[in-house]
C-alpha cells in the first residue's frame, strides 16, 4: 500500500510538533567522549536549564536554543551539550561534543541545535 502525500505530511507535522512540545531543556557538561546513538546522559553534566526557545522552521526542522548567561557554569571547561525532555534525568534527544572552552563571567553562550525530520515512502 502507498501512503498519500497528505498522510506523509500529517506524520511529519505530528513528529515535528512532538519534538517542539516535549523537549524543552538544554544541558552542558565537561565530557569529551564522542557522542553515540546509545547515549542517555551527558558524560559530566554541570548545568541544565529550560531552553530559551524552540521553533519550527520550514515545516520539517526544529530549532532548539539554549542560552547560558554570564553567571552560569563559570569555571568549567565546557565541551558537551545535549537536549532533554526534563529538568533532571529524562530522555536525551541529542548530544554533541566540541572543543572545550573555559566558561567565565565575561562570556555569554548561545547554543542552537537544528533537528531535521524526514518522512519517506
Compact overview of the structure:
The chain is mostly beta strands. It is 15% helix and 42% strand.
Helices and strands in order, then pairings?
Elements: H1 5-22, E1 25-29, E2 45-50, E3 53-57, E4 61-68, E5 77-84, E6 92-102, E7 109-116
Antiparallel strand pairs: 1-2, 1-5, 3-4, 4-7, 5-6
Number of strands: 7
Biggest sheet architecture: 4 strands, antiparallel
Proportion of strand residues: 35-45%
Q: What integer value in Å does the Rg equal?
A: 16 Å
Helix content: 10-25%
Class derived from helix and strand content: mainly beta
Low-confidence stretches: none
Strand order in the largest sheet: 2-1-5-6
Number of domains: 1
Q: Sketch the topology as an H/E string, one letter per element.
A: HEEEEEEE
Shape: elongated
Helical stretch tally = 1
Q: What is the CA-CA span between the terminal residues? A: 10 Å
Mean pLDDT: 96
Please give a structural write-up.
- The protein is mainly β.
- The protein has one domain (5-116).
- The chain is 15% helix and 42% strand.
- It contains one helix and seven strands.
- The strands form two sheets. The protein has a four-stranded antiparallel β-sheet, with no helix packed on it.
- Strand 5 (77-84) and strand 6 form a beta hairpin.
- The chain starts with a helix and ends in a 5-residue tail after the last strand.
Amino acid at each position: 500500500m502507498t501512503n498519500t502525500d497528505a498522510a506523509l505530511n500529517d506524520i511529519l507535522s505530528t513528529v515535528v510538533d512532538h519534538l517542539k512540545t516535549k523537549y524543552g531543556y538544554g544541558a552542558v557538561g565537561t565530557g569529551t567522549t564522542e557522542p553515540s546513538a546509545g547515549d542517555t546522559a551527558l558524560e559530566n553534566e554541570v548545568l541544565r536549564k529550560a531552553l530559551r526557545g524552540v521553533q519550527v522552521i520550514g515545516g520539517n526542522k526544529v530549532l532548539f536554543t539554549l542560552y547560558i548567561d554570564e553567571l552560569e557554569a563559570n569555571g568549567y571547561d565546557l565541551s558537551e551539550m545535549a537536549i532533554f525532555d526534563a529538568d533532571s534525568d529524562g530522555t536525551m534527544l541529542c548530544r554533541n561534543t566540541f572543543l572545550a572552552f573555559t566558561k567565565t563571567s565575561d562570556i555569554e553562550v548561545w547554543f542552537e541545535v537544528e533537528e531535521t525530520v524526514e518522512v519517506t515512502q
